[in-house]
Amino acid sequence: MKKALKISLISLLSLLVLLIVAISIVVWIVFTPSRLTPMVREQAAKYLTCQTDIGEVELTFFSTFPEFSLKIEGVNLVNPVNGAPNDTLLAAHQATAALDFKALWNRNELIMREITLSDVAVNAFVDKNGKANYDVMVPDTTAKDTSAFSNPFKKIDISAIKLRNAKVSYLDLSTDMKASLADMNADMQLDMTGNVLNAKLNADANKVSFKMDSVDYVKDANIKLAVPVKYDFDNLLTTLADAKLELNGLKATLDGQIGMSKTNDDIRTDLTFSTEKYGLAPLLKLIPAAYTSALDGMKLDGFVSATGSVQGIVNEKSLPLIDVNAILDSGTFEYNALPYKLYDLAGNADVKLNMNNERDSKIVLNEVHAKTGRSQVDATGLINYILSDDMLFDLSMKMKLNLPELEPMMPEDMNIGLEGYANGTANVKFMLSDAMNANLTKMNIGGNFDVTNLGLVYDSISMYANKAKLAVAIPNKKSSKTGFIDASLWADKLKYNQGKGMSATILNADIKTQTSDLTKTDQMNNILCGFRFDHLTGSMDGMQALLDKSNGNLDLKMNFSDSVSMPSVVCDFDIAKVKAIMDDTTSAVIAYPKGRFSMLPSKKNPANPAFDIRGTTGTINAAMGSQQFSANDMNINTNLVYDDKATNALQQWQAKGNVAMNQGKVVIAGINDEIHIPAIKMDFTPDFYNITDSRMTIGKSDFKLVGKLWNVDEFMHDKGLLKGDFDFTSNTTDVYQLIDMTSGFGEADTTATAQAVADSSSTTTGPYMVPKGVDLKLHAKIDKALLGFDSASNILGDIYVKDGVLALEDLRFTTSAARMQITSMYKSPRRNHLYAGINLHILDIEIPELLSMIPDVDTIMPMLRSFRGKAEFHFALETNMDSMYNLKKSTLIGASSIRGDNLVLMDGETFSEIAKILRFNKKTENKIDSLNAEFTIFRNEVDIYPFQIVMDKYKAVVDGRHNLDMTFKYHISVTDSPLPIKFGVNIQGTMDDIMNHPFKCIRPAKCKYANLYRPAQRKDVDTKKLDIIRKMREALKSEVVQ
Amino acid sequence: MKRISLYSAIILTIIVTIVSCAPVESYDEALLIGKWKSGTLYYRYDNTGSGATWDTADDVTEAEGTKFTWVLDQSDLTHILQMDISGATVTKVYTITKLTSTTLEYKDELSGTKYTFTKQ
């Protein structure tokens, strides 16, 4: 056995030596480079159509024992193509390959230890027509092999395929694509068992570039790969497991499978990947500039990492879905157009790309955080349609905003200053295009903020609040008419200032506003504003207003581009108390005003406003200096229309509606007594006023005025008189007070002479001027009138005021002295030319009381002082007066009739003297059976018409003239006396003259009226005189109402 | 006594005869028409029988003057002043003593006062 073993070993050794010798002979003798190189070149020429330059080919055995190794020194493939930057297709400095011949021989296993290519340069080129310079293989004319792939070896194992210092260039003009890499070193390990290929590729390359359609997708990048890969030839399935990729330091891991369809060109992908944390700035640099133009002006940095998957079919019609979860932290962001630098950017977002349907690609922001200055924003949400031309943003944000940091976002020319800190949430949903175009109507924006120390300054306006709540919603879903925005502001104490003259402080202010799109200035815009506050204190130019517990709604409609039409404003208000202070002496307090104020364009002319005021109030107290007004309540429903074509302010406002007031009180300067107004109720139109209730108490007077006032429109247009017809009822009326109250209304003394103007130094004082332009009729029923000197009762009659004329018509009343009837007229055509006329009938009056009541009668007819008893007095007088009520005697004209029966002759001075001369019986109280005397007044002259008196044993007829300078000239015709003759006496002079020189003043004269009362002997002249007397008496008595 | 009575009757007859035969002056109304002035006092006689009087010293204009109607009967010039407030009238009678185209003079018989006006 030992020998056999020895023999065997020797034999084997010998065989081996023989084999080695044989191989050596073959290698050294048969496969020498000089023999082998031409063989290779010859074979290459059979397969390649281009020029081939193959250097020396050497087969080695011993240096690579036990494997055969083939080494080629220098390979060049040259294939010139027009347009190609280089004629050399392939150039390799050296190529070696080592084959385990034994395994191949014994086990049909292709085992290669190493394939090395060094200093390789590849210049691939495709011209515009698709002609490639690498298309150098001799066309295969054999039938196409359609059989399935079958591994011819039992095993293939290539320990290492090494590529050293490779440089590849690819230029495809037909697709405008260019790719290149340099300094590429790669090591790949292959093994294949059955139809499963396992490979592991490690490679790195510098200056990797890829450009297509003028876009540099990769440029001068460093790439490193460590890719384990398995390929199943049976299932056409590539499997990657923990494949590591590195691009310019960005490391990623790739796992998954890529499968090829056996039936079509579909590629099925199911890959996952993850990246390590990587700088955002260098990452962005990897993105082609064409795709980062949207980031121009932006500076982004931070660290990002991502995991994701690529799943789906790749074919001509389909691309796989890409799902990436990206994480950002420590980020910063700057943007030229954004006045902020964001920092501490962090977030987590899912990016879903569906390149088959651009509407199905989106970014889900799971959380995003950013800070700037003292502000912070946390957001979640969705950015949808990211591959389409327009993206949808749907974000929910929590915001902590340092408001001064918002100032740069305000319009630059407005110079708005902000203070305060806001904490709240905001929700926005908008398309990017709408945001870029500021198309707010198509955006959804909502936010609620709690603000502390809020401050806003704009121009001369400033506003401050300690605490405030702001809420904004765009669009406003509460109303389609104001669908643009819904905003609200609440503030605990809101201070508002505008310039130095206007300020307001509002406590617990709650303001809600809804508007239509105010940016559309060519349409009717609508602004709704609701307000509610506990207290408001406002001041403007010295005026002050205070409002308590107020709430209301304001509805404003206007077209901003319509500079003609008035805006529409409707304001409902409900206020606990309003106090307005104009100055130290002027103020008003209104309790519980509630109602609606409207300002609408006039239907007749939209450029003019029409106001509608409807409301009620509680108590009202107002004061202006010493003038005061108060009321328990007031109800107003009125419509005011403005007419710009009217010529004065009163005509410009056309009012209709109704007013009611209860328990009013007025204090007016110049009227000592308060005016109490128990009730006023009135309906009115521009032309008609219907006073259904009007009661008033002034001092001792009380009035009730009910009636109608009309023709107001013509009065306002100076076309007619203001007409009225009223029932004037009063228990007590102080006439003088009434005159004082109405003096001067409507007065315009255009006819005043220069003298009159000089006399009238002030328009506020002077005579009573009767209202002009009015035609008013009062049906008076006054139980008691205070007349100053007396009082009158049971007054019944009509009072007229017509265009400057005041008239009392047949006013009947009773005084303590007598029953009286008066018709009087007072006119004031001008201040210095007043007219007074009186037609007075006094019935059953004691003559002394008559003289006491009207002392002027004594002046005109002094002889009345000598009588006692009841008389009937009719008196008509008219005159003009100056502004001081001094008589213009040149205009004085009057007539009077006095009738008395059984009058007692008093011990009057005149008649005492007469009685002395005529020797009357002094012991007897002489009575006059009747007295009928008439006299007239013209200027200074009082003419006493002849009248007869019968006394004692005398009958006498008296006439004469009495002048207002108290001189007189009387004639007494004694027609019956104890003497047998008729005689006369003339009395001339003054009373003093008579007393001092009686014989000079009292002279006998011819009996002038011897037959006046003897009809049969009466002369024509007497008849005429008596006729005058009769007519005068009848005229004077004709108006007496029995 | 009879002689005295006789003489008296003769003298009375002569006087009555003289008086009754004295001529009565008569003036032309046409001369009266127009505006007459005496100081500040004015009278205006219209040919309709109406007229007005005013005194500018009292700041009264012509339009504001007191209206009257007038009647000229021989030498008796009667002014009838109508009151607005009443139907009563005031009658003033004067005796014209001179009436020319430029001068008007009349006398108030009751007071004896003479008035002289010049035509305007």
Topology:
The complex is a heterodimer of chains A (1042) and B (120).
Chain A: H1 2-30, H2 33-47, E1 51-54, E2 57-60, E3 68-78, E4 88-99, H3 101-107, E5 109-126, E6 155-172, E7 177-193, E8 196-212, E9 215-232, E10 237-247, E11 250-260, E12 267-275, E13 278-279, H4 280-286, E14 298-314, E15 321-335, E16 338-354, E17 362-372, E18 375-384, E19 392-402, E20 416-431, H5 432-436, E21 444-458, E22 461-474, E23 485-498, E24 502-515, E25 524-540, E26 543-559, E27 568-581, E28 586-591, E29 594-601, E30 609-617, E31 620-624, E32 627-631, E33 633-642, H6 649-652, E34 653-667, E35 675-684, E36 688-698, E37 701-710, H7 712-716, E38 722-734, H8 735-742, H9 754-759, E39 774-786, E40 791-802, E41 805-815, E42 819-830, E43 833-846, H10 847-853, H11 855-860, E44 867-868, E45 870-881, E46 887-905, H12 909-918, E47 927-938, E48 941-951, E49 954-963, E50 968-976, E51 983-989, H13 991-996, H14 998-1001, E52 1002-1005, H15 1020-1037
Chain B: H1 2-21, H2 29-32, E1 34-38, E2 41-45, E3 50-55, E4 66-73, E5 76-82, E6 89-99, E7 103-107, E8 114-119
Descriptive overview:
The complex is a heterodimer of chains A (1042) and B (120). Chain A is mostly beta strands and 1042 residues long. By secondary structure, chain B is of the alpha+beta class. Helices cover 20% and strands 44% of the residues of chain B. Chain B has helices at residues 2-21, 29-32; strands spanning 34-38, 41-45, 50-55, 66-73, 76-82, 89-99, 103-107, 114-119. An eight-stranded antiparallel barrel of chain B has the order 1-2-3-4-5-6-7-8. The longest helix of chain B is centred in the first third of the chain and has 20 residues, at 2-21. The model of chain B is unreliable at 1-22 (pLDDT under 50).
Name the features.
heterodimer; A: 1042 residues; mainly beta; 15 helices; 52 strands; disordered N terminus; B: alpha+beta; 2 helices; 8 strands
